[in-house]
């Protein structure tokens, strides 16, 4: 009864969802693409059966899905992949993963008719939800149809657990109906189990298995040899953090002329001027907004999209997608976005794999264990706020031996935590194979099943 009430609500909410998509499409045109797919209406060419369906809602999940899909193809060549997403950036990233015979559509809105239409059309052999995406109607429909549905690279922080517990009448049946869950950490596992999830293993984070783009790192190494100053980057920044950094730089005298004779040790302004500062926003729809913010604060701005290779300017803006390895390769130090506002932090694994030391703010609950392991390994530092982070970054660039030691520790830390992709793919394929085997009736069922004669 409660699920039916939820289904009625999501059905009635569809006009609001359409309105929201139209608004989002103004800034991100990708949201206007194939809108009807979200409500279970598909092009005739979008069909097939036996899919390994992977749902990666947004950019981060799509990147993790790419690692898992590559390993699935290694272990099971030719496996047909059906990719679904919820955001425009997720779909754009997911398109890079497609091979001949694969298919990509939007995630169905969690209303009974849209979910039923999706499952009727594609009849997946198994469904894989990435990280956090557990929807009540979708999980219930898969359970009813006998479609194995698993949660891979699963994480659940304390805030999300509290929210799920407040809606326990929806969350608990959804989590308990999953066929299997593979958690990133022991803490994630305990929280997921408390909601009724069947945690089959703690496999670590798939993102440790990512290999940085070698061409981008080579380009970064070449550019660094031409740069007159060390680079400090605010990486994957979120709303509010860019203003924090720019305000700190202004307070430290970044916009004031610095006499050449001024003692560099005594002058914070001189130390700030001796660094090239770079900002790489997390979300592409904010690129123009951040460029305008940089200029409104009195700084010059050089955009990657306009200049190609970064040009000398007060602030560089990394306004391109898919080039984080290049940016981390250029940076001597990275300030971790999402950690200087109460947002839980962005993932620091890619920075570690690129050998870039990280300074993170106080908020890292989304990747709590990775953050603590990184600190313990000597690959990162923590600062209580942006001002202390900038000061710590300046100390690091002035101490090459310390910076190089952190860079080496970062790569060791990243290498030591690999293996999640192999374990997850093997477990997933075992479930898919078991689900495809003909079911043998038990003796009790044989006795009670009516005869067809």
TrEMBL record:
Compartments where found: Cell envelope; Cell membrane
InterPro entries linked: Glyco_trans_1, Glycos_transf_N, Glycos_transf_N_sf, Kdotransferase
Provenance organism: Variovorax defluvii
Enzyme class: transferase
EC number, UniProt record: 2.4.99.12
Protein role: Involved in lipopolysaccharide (LPS) biosynthesis. Catalyzes the transfer of 3-deoxy-D-manno-octulosonate (Kdo) residue(s) from CMP-Kdo to lipid IV(A), the tetraacyldisaccharide-1,4'-bisphosphate precursor of lipid A.
Protein name stated in the entry: 3-deoxy-D-manno-octulosonic acid transferase
SUPFAM superfamilies in the cross-refs: UDP-Glycosyltransferase/glycogen phosphorylase (SSF53756)
Swiss-Prot/TrEMBL catalytic activity: lipid IVA (E. coli) + CMP-3-deoxy-beta-D-manno-octulosonate = alpha-Kdo-(2->6)-lipid IVA (E. coli) + CMP + H(+)
3-deoxy-D-manno-octulosonic-acid transferase N-terminal domain residues: 34-210
Gene3D superfamilies: 3-Deoxy-D-manno-octulosonic-acid transferase, N-terminal domain, Glycogen Phosphorylase B
Annotated Pfam families: Glycos_transf_1 (PF00534), Glycos_transf_N (PF04413)
A Gene Ontology molecular function term of the record: transferase activity
Protein family: Belongs to the glycosyltransferase group 1 family.
Transmembrane segments: none
Keyword Transcription: no
Involved pathway(s): Bacterial outer membrane biogenesis; LPS core biosynthesis
Ranges of residues in domain Glycosyl transferase family: 317-411
Keywords of this entry: Cell inner membrane, Cell membrane, Lipopolysaccharide biosynthesis, Membrane, Transferase
């Amino acid at each position: 009864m409660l699920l039916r009430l939820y289904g009625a609500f999501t059905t009635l909410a569809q006009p609001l969802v359409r309105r929201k998509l139209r608004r989002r499409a103004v800034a991100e045109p990708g949201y206007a693409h194939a809108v009807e797919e979200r409500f279970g209406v598909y092009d005739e060419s979008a069909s097939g059966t036996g899919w390994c369906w992977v749902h990666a809602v947004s950019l981060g999940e799509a990147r993790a899905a790419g690692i898992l899909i590559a390993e699935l193809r290694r272990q099971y060549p030719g496996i047909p992949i059906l990719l679904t997403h919820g955001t425009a950036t997720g779909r754009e990233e997911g398109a890079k993963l497609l091979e001949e015979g694969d298919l990509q559509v939007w995630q169905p809105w969690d209303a009974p008719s849209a979910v039923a239409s999706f499952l009727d059309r594609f009849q997946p052999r198994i469904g894989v939800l990435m990280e956090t995406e557990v929807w009540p109607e979708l999980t219930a429909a898969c359970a009813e149809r006998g479609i194995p549905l698993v949660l891979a690279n699963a994480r659940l922080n304390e805030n999300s657990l509290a929210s799920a517990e407040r809606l326990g009448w929806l969350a608990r049946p959804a989590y308990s109906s999953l066929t299997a869950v593979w958690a990133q950490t022991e803490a994630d596992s305990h929280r997921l189990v408390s909601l009724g999830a069947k945690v089959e293993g703690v496999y670590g984070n798939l993102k440790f298995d990512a290999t940085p783009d070698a061409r981008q790192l080579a380009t970064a190494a070449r550019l660094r040899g031409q740069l007159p100053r060390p680079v400090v980057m605010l990486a994957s920044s979120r709303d509010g953090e860019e203003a924090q950094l720019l305000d700190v730089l202004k307070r430290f005298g970044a916009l004031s002329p610095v006499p050449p004779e001024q003692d560099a040790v005594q002058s914070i302004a001189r130390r700030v001027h001796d660094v090239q500062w770079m900002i790489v926003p997390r979300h592409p729809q904010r690129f123009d907004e951040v460029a305008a913010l940089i200029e409104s604060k009195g700084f010059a701005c050089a955009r990657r999209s306009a200049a190609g290779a970064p040009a000398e300017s007060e602030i560089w803006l990394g306004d391109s997608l898919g080039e984080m390895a290049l940016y981390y390769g250029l940076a001597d130090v990275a300030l971790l976005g999402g950690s200087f506002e109460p947002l839980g932090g962005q993932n620091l694994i890619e920075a570690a794999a690129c050998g870039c030391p990280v300074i993170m703010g106080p908020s890292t609950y989304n990747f709590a264990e990775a953050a603590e392991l990184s600190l313990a390994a000597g690959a990162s530092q923590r600062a209580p706020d942006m001002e202390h982070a900038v000061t710590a970054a300046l100390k690091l660039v002035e101490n090459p031996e310390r910076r190089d030691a952190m860079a080496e520790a970062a790569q060791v830390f990243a290498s030591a935590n690999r293996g999640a992709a192999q374990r997850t793919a093997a477990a997933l394929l075992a479930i898919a194979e078991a689900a495809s085997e003909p079911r043998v009736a038990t003796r009790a069922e044989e006795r009670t099943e009516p005869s067809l004669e």
